[in-house]
Specification:
heterodimer, A: five-stranded parallel beta sheet, 5 helices, 5 strands, about 20% strand, globular, B: alpha+beta, 6 helices
Chain lengths: ~120, ~210
């Protein structure tokens, strides 16, 4: 199942890595480098899924998640982070994210989580 | 202010686990085996931290600095000499080295590496000690170690003494080597010791 995915990360390196992984699986990618850009693109293009970095300058990932869900309560948002703490994962789950991927990105993990979330599931392992 | 041998022992164990996780992350990024040296753990007056690190990392270094906060707070640094940063960038992007400068995409790549490596280490601390640690946006600087550390001590006036944990790592079959450094002020250091004791009691009840 190919989808339109919005990748939000202030690191160009991270955005390129995710683009490579996701495009290789047939998905179409849009990029945003900060929270404001992400909200604008979400509003205009309504992607099928958002892959969202947690720690960004200015508007952080959790704030973006909340605002996206205000725009669209059915939004599918997967949080991406280098933070491996279980408490962070729990916080993201409570905030309404649909899944979680950790950095450094592993191709199989990213595609598996994206696939699960696109088909309506949640992915927290 | 001194660490007891018991504290030293538990802290070294925690650091080994944390740095091990960080090394695993760096290995995944580069596809190379990471060799870690035994971490050095000591309390220094803040004025000595710069001198200690400047002896092992001279000249301009690429430093990724991340502030962490929570019950235990402080500064974490990934330090690479300039040549190592350029070489690491070429490994990450799988590109040959064209010149000895880090362009903007190279700087982004090194910043992200620092973010991942430092989060891996500190995240392990958070999980094991059962404290939540929050992280600032990582910042890359290209300047001397003393310059980097001066900005840390200016920002954090509490810093009179620092617990400094540093370990040298290098990528097998390459000339990339660097240091991971964690600096805590004394209030956080005391809190860390308290959490270490709790961890120790959970893992190996007396």
């Amino acid at each position: 199942m190919s989808a339109h995915i919005l990748v939000v990360d202030d690191s160009g390196f991270a955005r390129r890595t995710l683009r490579q992984i996701l495009e290789s699986a047939g998905h179409t990618i849009d990029e945003a480098k900060d929270g404001s850009d992400a909200l604008e693109r979400y509003y205009l293009k309504k992607p099928d899924l958002v892959l969202l970095d947690m720690v960004m300058e200015g508007m952080g990932g959790m704030e973006v998640l909340n605002k996206v869900r205000e725009l669209d309560p059915a939004a599918k948002v997967v949080l991406a982070t280098a933070d491996i703490q279980s408490s962070t994962r729990a916080e993201a789950q409570t905030a309404g994210a649909s899944g979680f991927v950790t950095k450094p990105f592993e191709r199989e993990q990213v595609l598996s989580v994206v696939s699960t979330v696109l088909t309506g599931g949640l992915s927290w392992n | 202010m001194e660490l007891t041998s018991a504290h030293q022992d538990t802290l070294t164990e925690l650091i080994n686990i944390g740095y091990g996780r960080a090394a695993a992350a760096l290995s995944e990024l580069t596809g190379r085996r990471i060799i870690l040296e035994v971490p050095k753990v000591a309390v220094h007056p803040i004025s000595e931290v710069s001198a200690t690190l400047s002896r092992v990392m001279m000249g301009e270094v690429a430093s990724v600095h991340q502030v962490f906060s929570g019950p235990v707070s402080g500064n974490a640094l990934l330090l690479l000499d300039h040549e190592a940063a350029v070489l690491l960038n070429s490994l990450l992007l799988d590109q040959p080295i064209i010149d000895d400068r880090l362009d903007s995409s190279g700087r982004e790549a090194i910043t992200e590496v620092g973010n991942i490596v430092l989060n891996a280490c500190l995240g392990v601390f958070g999980n094991l000690l059962q404290v939540q640690v929050s992280f600032s946006v990582p910042r890359l600087r290209l300047e001397s170690v003393s310059g980097v550390l001066h900005s840390i001590s200016v920002r954090d006036r509490e810093l009179q003494y620092a617990l400094m944990v540093h370990t040298r790592f290098h990528l097998r079959d390459s000339d990339v080597s660097g240091y991971m450094v964690i600096i805590l002020g004394i209030t956080s250091f005391s809190r860390l010791l308290a959490e270490l004791e709790k961890w120790e009691n959970r893992e190996a009840p007396k």
